[in-house]
Amino acid sequence: MTNQKIVIIEDNDDTFFLIKGLLKNIGYDDQSVVRCAQLHELDRIDPKDVGVVLTDLSLPDSPYRLTFKKVNDHFVYTPIIVLTGTAEVEVTNNILKAGAQDYLIKGEIDSRTLSKSIQYAIERKRMANDYKRLFLESPLPMYIFEKDTYRFLAANEAALRQYQYTRNEFVAMTALDIRPESEWERFYKVRKTMPDSYFDAGRWLHQRKNGEQFYVHVYAHPIEFEGKEATIVLANDIDARVKAEQELQEKTDQIEKILGSVGDGFITIQELTARFNTEDPADPVNATVINGINETVRKLDDVVKGVNGKAHDTITEKTD
Would you say the pTM of this structure is higher than 0.70? Predict the structure, then answer.
């Protein structure tokens, strides 16, 4: 029926052989069916080789509340069908919100039901993958964190590269961990006033795993993710632009200071010249005026030399 394998994660022999027989009835041969009786056995399976996963939730090495997340993390782009007992339906409904494509109740599975469930799961996952890839493969850094705990729920590849963490490291942290403590109080205030829609949060200072701080422009939007209230964030690195603007402002301030010094110097010379006694060149006041003019000219010369020196340093930096 297909070149891809179908994985059955089930520790109960009766359930496994029942499903394996039903799969054979709808076109899956023995070689295409792979069994995992315990969750750790997933380590030997390449997700790229798998077309569909059927999984129980209660396994010897994994409690039902954790099983689906582990399976879903391993098979990111693969459709997953949950196998459940009647008493677990409420739990399974929550698992569907978390990303499962369908569920089957043990004891009520036949070839027709199984075939329809697999077809439905494949199509539903195909559509979900289109949206998932928009997030995971976006060139812009994006992450999702839980509304109340600020705990990271997901991050795309661009965000992992930007912050220099592995995926496991990132999802073990909170939104506070990528910010210096000086930004925490502002973060809390913004969270309290954030609207229930698209929000331009403006410029923030973030930090990488190595402690390096850099500026980002943050855009956020509230969403529901894996059954939880959450916020999706785009954090665009604008560090080079901000530092260029800061450097430009510093240069502008320097120029204004220089122009102010030059202007003050000319005003001083004008004031001193007005005191010069042209009718009596021997007037002692004239010597004071001349000394004052010479001192002002010296200061202006220092200013000009300073401008030339900074210009030379800037040119040298750009050519090195």
Answer: no
Architecture field, domain 5-136: 3-Layer(aba) Sandwich (3.40)
If you search the block for the tokens 């469930």, which residue do you land on? 117
| Strands 142-146 vs 199-207: parallel, antiparallel or unpaired | unpaired
Closest listed residue to residue 83, CA positions, set 34, 73, 75, 91 = 91
CATH number of this structure's domain 142-237, picked from the four choices 3.30.70.100, 3.30.450.20, 2.40.50.1020, 1.20.1270.50: 3.30.450.20
pLDDT tens digits, residue range 253-288? Answer: 776 776 566 666 566 666 656 665 566 667 676 677
> Using N-to-C axis directions, what is the helix angle for 13-25 and 111-136, rounded to 10°?
90
CA dihedral 286, 288, 289, 291 (to 10 degrees): 120
Which among 90, 62, 72, 69 has a CA at the least distance from the CA of 129? Answer: 72
**Which backbone phi and psi does 172 adopt, to 5 degrees?**
-90, 0
Q: Are 236 and 217 in contact (CB under 8 A)?
A: yes
Q: Where are the domains of the chain?
A: 5-136, 142-237, 241-319
* CA 110 – CA 112 distance, rounded (Å): 6
Amino acid 96: pLDDT:
80
Residue 281's pLDDT is 65
Taking only the tens place, the pLDDT of each residue in 35-66 is 999 999 999 999 999 999 999 988 999 987 88
Q: Which of 44, 63, 42, 43 is nearest to 53 (CA)?
A: 42
* Contacts with 314 (C-beta within 8 Å, 6 or more apart), sequence order: none
Q: Provide the 3-class DSSP secondary structure of residue 28.
A: coil
